[in-house]
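1st attempt posting a full record on here, be nice pls
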Amino acid sequence: MSVCPDKIELLQAYFDGELDAANAQALEAHLTTCPGCSAALDELRMLRARFADPALRERAPEHLRRRVEAILQAEGSGPSRRAGTRALPWGLSAGFGAIAAALATVAVLPSAGALETQLVADHVRSTLGTRLVDVETSDRHTVKPWFNGKVDFAPPVVDLAGAGFPLQGGRLEYLDGRRVAALVYRRNKHIINLFIWPQETGLRLPALGGSDDGYAIVHWTDGGLQFWAVSDVDRRDLEAFSRLFAQHIRG
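the predicted structure (as tokens):
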């Protein structure tokens, strides 16, 4: 699968949160029908999420640094790059494959056991950056169909505004090696990210409460899906949110 040449810079701008609403909507429509561009965007998100983890960082040896700098120079992306031009996004330039191969010698990717850390890191990035939601609306009937064609399952979306957890919208994420749906709710001034993807084992587990670096995490499974709610809200509020959500989807 190849990336559409005329979409390369648009993908990078979309990834960086720099596209205006009209162009972003047009690109999102294109992504639903273009596996190559969709896969490229997934790769960007996966790499950003994994390489952004501070636990994975260590200073590269000088010979490796020189090798990477030489590749960047050859690609026109180094310090001598002409001002005003945009480097090709990760995974879309010929040189990036060589850079990634070089970095692989010093980077250790997180395992499934570090999933909670990945979820918290993604939650924090979403609240600090410009991409809290891809589709911004409180209408669950708009959010639910927005995921059609973007994930291979149907994430349930419920309206909990009456209980003090208004829906803010949704977005796509790449976690633990697959695309997942992220629903965004609010509790007063706090954001709740609810990550959803299929349950691999088919087991039903009770809701579990935990924490990571001061963030509350609640995990449960139901109807063949697993749910991970993450927030800096009081854990009792997050557990209440999780119970309400589970009750609504069970009818």
